[in-house]
């Protein structure tokens, strides 16, 4: 991509109504555009990042045997009525033009839809287990939309639903999703996510689990063991900032290894829920077991917020000059910057031929402007060509201070090796 043709441009100052780092840097860099509170457009650079995250998620979900599908966001009210969720505060309700009362909602989740669909295709234990997922826009009537992409009213989410003959089989798949699947997703996105015990609810079989990334920008408070990394959300923990006990321990001891628990701020990037049979019972989703007896299907659900992953990466990886993208989710791997009227078309083509995604700054701007914008955009590798380099390339990683001078061939090989790792 030639930067002279890139839709959107860098803004010189922070947006006035944003306080979160991810919102400031993503808006300034032209990754997202704020349409209203909690609602953003993903511009070409931001969409490339989101697509990289989606690709990683798809690969890891497919590896578990889950199948991708796509469901509607507009739901008839009978779905939420069946499970008692029609009057939940977060529901956006839709009133048809010829009616006075809402009869549809635009959904933030799809347990009900998926359970009803499954009634048409599950009848025997031989049909189970199976899992299906989608990546789709969700809607949440969030009264406190804030913190950029961390708390929105419209957001992209991967939601997966699994169906089983027993709680034992659910727990098998549940922990397969937790590790290795979710663990790999977040690691590949450059994030260290902590598996955290969280509260259950009216529609879960037991306690749930969250995947939390430590960050001062986080709205969640968790307690983490410094020894074994057992963690639990403050909402269910018996610990307090003054000390106390958790799960029967003393003086804030870890219930797993008796190590010391520490209070941390964190961002939730994913969650998993053992649903049990409540949705199955609401939609009469049953199967015939080996003895010919009819039993309710046992369900689980598993979510990842794509925008949250993107925002969390920005919160975790930035400096005073801008974003520092992890390579796997960066919009481009290399930023080629031509200075002093040098024509870098040949190097641009060679990088592309080597399979390297590159943003080519071919604009007529000063070196200072180009470097400042490059730092803000945060592309992992910077290639600079100028008359002073006499045909060589200055290569610098975004997270390093020192640059190296090398031949074009050496520079391309360095990035090619990075791509193929």
From TrEMBL:
<dbReference type="InterPro" id="IPR044140">
    <property type="entry name" value="ProRS_anticodon_short"/>
</dbReference>
<dbReference type="InterPro" id="IPR050062">
    <property type="entry name" value="Pro-tRNA_synthetase"/>
</dbReference>
<keyword id="KW-0030">Aminoacyl-tRNA synthetase</keyword>
<dbReference type="InterPro" id="IPR002314">
    <property type="entry name" value="aa-tRNA-synt_IIb"/>
</dbReference>
<keyword id="KW-0067">ATP-binding</keyword>
<feature type="domain" description="Aminoacyl-transfer RNA synthetases class-II family profile">
    <location>
        <begin position="38"/>
        <end position="326"/>
    </location>
</feature>
<dbReference type="InterPro" id="IPR006195">
    <property type="entry name" value="aa-tRNA-synth_II"/>
</dbReference>
<dbReference type="GO" id="GO:0005524">
    <property type="term" value="F:ATP binding"/>
</dbReference>
<dbReference type="Pfam" id="PF03129">
    <property type="entry name" value="HGTP_anticodon"/>
</dbReference>
<dbReference type="GO" id="GO:0006433">
    <property type="term" value="P:prolyl-tRNA aminoacylation"/>
</dbReference>
<dbReference type="GO" id="GO:0004827">
    <property type="term" value="F:proline-tRNA ligase activity"/>
</dbReference>
<keyword id="KW-0547">Nucleotide-binding</keyword>
<keyword id="KW-0436">Ligase</keyword>
<dbReference type="InterPro" id="IPR036621">
    <property type="entry name" value="Anticodon-bd_dom_sf"/>
</dbReference>
<dbReference type="GO" id="GO:0005829">
    <property type="term" value="C:cytosol"/>
</dbReference>
<dbReference type="InterPro" id="IPR004154">
    <property type="entry name" value="Anticodon-bd"/>
</dbReference>
<dbReference type="Pfam" id="PF00587">
    <property type="entry name" value="tRNA-synt_2b"/>
</dbReference>
<dbReference type="InterPro" id="IPR002316">
    <property type="entry name" value="Pro-tRNA-ligase_IIa"/>
</dbReference>
<protein>
    <recommendedName>
        <fullName>Proline--tRNA ligase</fullName>
        <ecNumber>6.1.1.15</ecNumber>
    </recommendedName>
</protein>
<dbReference type="InterPro" id="IPR045864">
    <property type="entry name" value="aa-tRNA-synth_II/BPL/LPL"/>
</dbReference>
<keyword id="KW-0648">Protein biosynthesis</keyword>
């Amino acid at each position: 991509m030639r930067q002279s043709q890139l839709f959107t441009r860098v803004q010189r100052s922070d947006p006035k109504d944003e306080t979160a780092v991810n919102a400031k840097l993503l808006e300034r860099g032209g990754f997202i555009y704020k349409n209203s509170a909690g609602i953003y457009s993903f511009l070409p650079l931001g969409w490339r990042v989101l697509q990289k995250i989606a690709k990683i998620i798809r690969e890891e979900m497919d590896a578990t045997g889950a199948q991708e599908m796509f469901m509607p966001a507009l739901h008839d009210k009978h779905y939420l009525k069946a499970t008692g969720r029609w009057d939940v505060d977060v529901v956006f309700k839709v009133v048809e033009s010829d009616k006075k009362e809402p009869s549809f909602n635009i959904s933030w989740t799809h347990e009900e839809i998926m359970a009803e669909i499954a009634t048409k295709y599950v009848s025997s234990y031989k049909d189970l287990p199976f899992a299906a997922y989608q990546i789709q826009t969700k809607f949440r009537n969030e009264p406190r939309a804030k913190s950029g992409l961390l708390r929105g009213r419209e957001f992209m989410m991967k939601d997966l639903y699994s169906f089983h003959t027993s709680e034992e089989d659910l727990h098998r798949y549940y922990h397969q999703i937790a590790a290795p699947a979710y663990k790999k997703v977040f690691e590949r996105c450059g994030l260290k996510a902590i598996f955290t015990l969280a509260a259950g609810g009216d529609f879960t079989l037991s306690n749930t689990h969250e995947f939390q990334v430590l960050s001062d920008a986080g709205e969640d408070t968790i307690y983490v063991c410094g020894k074994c990394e057992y963690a639990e959300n403050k909402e269910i923990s018996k610990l307090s900032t003054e000390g106390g006990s958790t799960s029967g321990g003393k003086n804030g001891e870890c219930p797993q290894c008796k190590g010391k628990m520490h209070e941390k701020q964190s961002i939730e990037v994913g969650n998993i829920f053992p649903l049990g049979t409540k949705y199955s019972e609401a939609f009469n989703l049953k199967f015939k077991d080996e003895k010919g007896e009819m039993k309710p299907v046992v369900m689980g659900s598993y979510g990842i917020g794509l925008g949250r992953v993107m925002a969390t990466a920005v919160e975790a990886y930035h400096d005073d000059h801008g974003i520092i993208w992890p390579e796997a989710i960066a919009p481009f791997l290399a930023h080629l910057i031509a200075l002093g009227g040098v024509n870098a078309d040949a190097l641009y083509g060679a990088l592309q031929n080597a399979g390297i995604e590159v943003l080519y700054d071919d604009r007529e701007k000063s070196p200072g402007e180009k470097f400042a914008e490059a730092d803000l955009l945060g592309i992992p590798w910077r290639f600079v060509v100028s008359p002073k380099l006499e045909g060589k390339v200055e290569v610098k990683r975004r997270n390093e201070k020192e640059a190296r001078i090398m031949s074009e061939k050496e520079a391309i090989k360095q990035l090619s090796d990075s791509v193929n790792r």
